[in-house]
Design a protein that fits this description.
Layout (H helix, E strand, L loop, with lengths): L9 E5 L28 H5 L4 E2 L5 E5 H4 L9 E10 L5 E8 L5 E2 L3 E5 L5 E5 L5 E3 L8 E10 L5 E8 L1 H4 L2 E3 L3 H9 L10 E4 L4 E8 L19 E3 L36 H16 L3 H13 L5 H9 L4
Parallel strand pairs: 2-4, 6-13
Antiparallel strand pairs: 1-10, 1-15, 3-14, 4-11, 5-10, 5-14, 7-8, 7-11, 9-10, 12-13
């Protein structure tokens, strides 16, 4: 049964995965919800792409030279990759890796996130994907982690990976393998030149999808630095029919006073009620009372009659 009240917005927050001391982090000043810098792509161009589904806990490897697609759109050059990911399994942690090739070339990825109606919702430019040194089982690479919270009612999200003419004019300085080895074994790091990788119109990508429903969304930079709060992208009107992509080729919180109930126009549906109650309990259990209060406000706006009691019981340790 279709829900009368559906959120089509996409709440997003971003953070990079912590790694070895030599790992650098993406520019924390990037605001993914601001899509104004992304290339404008006509809806018809998006709909003609073949979107490769990537399931939970799956890693999809893409050789753009062999299977990459093309878009005749200003601001996009070379090959692109198009993925669809499930949006009804909770918070998503998506790791995108671009691997360097033996000829010291590397694809500088940009990612445009689209909601289930193929409406742009977030943009991660190439500067978000930072160079990571090779390890015992890893290669030189550009990598970034996208943490996305799909709004209620979403079934799929779409990720378009591309590079730009400006990216092709840049390079990435990698770590000399001898230096990486010396660091790994604790030897003195030799004073030798590092290779410089040119940016290429194609390359090898890895996309890994996992859920993050048991832990809080990381917001902004790591290590206690301040950062932006999660925001809602889009509007809360009922969406048009969701786009169907073509088949691909083979600690306990301190109790706080809840805000006054908001007026509601009609009863909320059972599955919506259960969704918000569960989310409120999880937020309180993780010590995020502010998030729980926001969920309570939204639930009561949609007509919930049990969210307030769920909140009160949870903060008292009875949820």
């Amino acid at each position: 049964m279709k829900m009368k009240k559906r959120l089509v917005a996409l709440c997003l927050s971003t953070a990079l995965l912590a790694g070895a001391p030599a790992v650098s982090f993406a520019d924390v000043n990037i605001v993914p919800q601001n899509t104004s810098a992304a290339p404008a792509i006509p809806a018809g161009e998006l709909q003609r792409l073949t979107w490769t589904p990537v399931a939970q806990s799956q890693t999809q490897t893409t050789d753009l030279a062999a299977t990459g697609q093309t878009l005749n759109v200003p601001g996009i050059t070379g090959k692109v990759a198009a993925y669809s990911v499930p949006a009804n399994i909770g918070e998503l942690t998506i790791t995108l890796t671009s691997l360097a090739n033996k000829q010291t070339g590397i694809y500088a990825p940009n990612v445009l996130v689209l909601d289930q109606n193929l409406t742009p919702a977030a943009y991660f430019p190439s500067s978000y994907f930072t160079y990571q040194e090779p390890g015992v089982v890893s290669e030189d690479r550009l990598e970034g982690v996208l943490k996305l919270t799909p709004a209620l009612g979403q079934q799929k999200l779409y990720l378009l990976v591309f590079t730009t003419p400006q990216d092709l004019q840049k390079t990435t300085t990698m770590t000399n393998p001898a230096k990486a080895y010396a660091k790994g074994v604790g030897n003195a790091v030799p004073d030798i030149a590092d290779p410089v990788a040119r940016h290429t119109p194609d390359g090898r990508l890895k996309l890994k999808v996992s859920t993050n429903s048991a832990s809080s969304v990381l917001v902004g930079p790591l290590f206690g630095s301040s950062g932006p709060s999660p925001v809602t992208v889009g509007n809360t009107a009922a969406p048009a029919s969701a786009y169907s992509a073509p088949a691909p080729a083979p600690a306990a919180p301190a109790p706080g006073a809840a805000p006054a109930p908001v007026a509601k126009s009609e009863p909320v549906l059972n599955d919506t009620e259960a969704y918000f109650n569960r989310a409120i309990k999880q937020a309180v259990a993780k010590g995020d009372v502010d998030k729980a209060l926001k969920l309570l406000n939204e639930a009561e706006r949609l007509g919930s009659t049990t969210a307030r009691q769920t909140f009160i019981s949870s903060v008292k340790g009875k949820g």
